[in-house]
Fold:
Amino acid sequence: MLIGRVSVPLCVDALKAAVHEAKKGRDLQRYREAWECIRMAAPNEPEARYDEVWTANTDRQNRIDTHRLETELKGYKNNLVKESIRIGHRDLGEHLESIGDLSGAFDTYTKMRPDASTQYHILDVGKHVIGILIQRRDWPSVLANVSKVMAGNASDDEQKNLQPYQKMVSGLAHLGCEKYYDASRCFLEVGDPTICQQYNDIASPNDVATYGGLTALASMDREELQARVLDNSGFRNYLELEPHIRKAISMFVNGRYSACLNILESYRTDYLLDYYLRHHVPVLFSRIRNKCIVQYFLPFSCVTLENMNAAFAKPGESLEQELIGMIKSGVLKARINTIDKLLVAVSNDPRIAMQTKALETAKRYEKEALERIRRMSLAAADLEVKGVPKKTPIVLSESWMDDSRRQISTGDMPMG
Structure:
């Protein structure tokens, strides 16, 4: 459906496949959406004719199955057998999910929690609930439920098998919340690709490589990319599935920024057809491009705009407006010399830095001096504090402190 809506050359084929795929299931709403799209895009195709017979039969069968499962669940509740009640809720929830009633499925899955008596049952409930939340794109709730799933007393083997699922789902949730650094950390820690393949209904190993590589490239510096991505033995297996991602990261680490951007641009259209990634492609690519420009300019005090255009601009276009935007937003610390057509670095004034450091040192010295005066005054007055709770502060009056300072300055304080 996504490809059919956003891709012109693939529109008809994708929508035809969507109609056939919808008719393999039982979700009438999905079939209607696919039929509406192909009716508008290609009204002469056989799939553009509404299948009333299939719709009527499927709707009738859905109603029969819903009534049957609800009746069975009532019988289980009357018998008070917890395991039967849990299975009844699970079967009804899976049925409601298959027919597109996500709200009803979520409520039904949630009712499984009181009857979940083992660790396996708790994990089963959590995975069903998370599956619904992912379809609804409720990312904060996904993160909350992942924490609940992993909070159980699972064995080491179970933890090992659950880690790819947990990291994958958490990465998707952070990606949906636009927390790209947290998302990259999760995807880089997914673990064994063979275990990851068990959760292809959420994301494939290729998706993990793509999501992890792009979010890391957009949020990590050169040292982190080398240590956490390229030198990561666990994530290297995923990068082998998407070698262009590994190549782009290597280009960035080695300072070949134009080549890095060219590789990513060649795959932009593919990423725009990705179900989870498409909304984040402009932001991710913009951040990566800004990082490349900043890193390219970092070693120089000034660079001609002609060289900047040759490195980053498209043929016949100028980079000046983009540089102005980066300077205004604070991403690039530089100024543009429009007369000589130069990009000039703005360095911090060493005098201001020295004065700021001197002021901070003076404040620390004053604070330490006041503490010493307080100690000397207490010792000179032969005072001793006993049995005062830690939470009760000792407040000295300002007049008493002024007298102590004056005595120290004049040398009149008796020295114990």
Summary: Residues 87 and 112 are 8 Å apart (CA to CA).
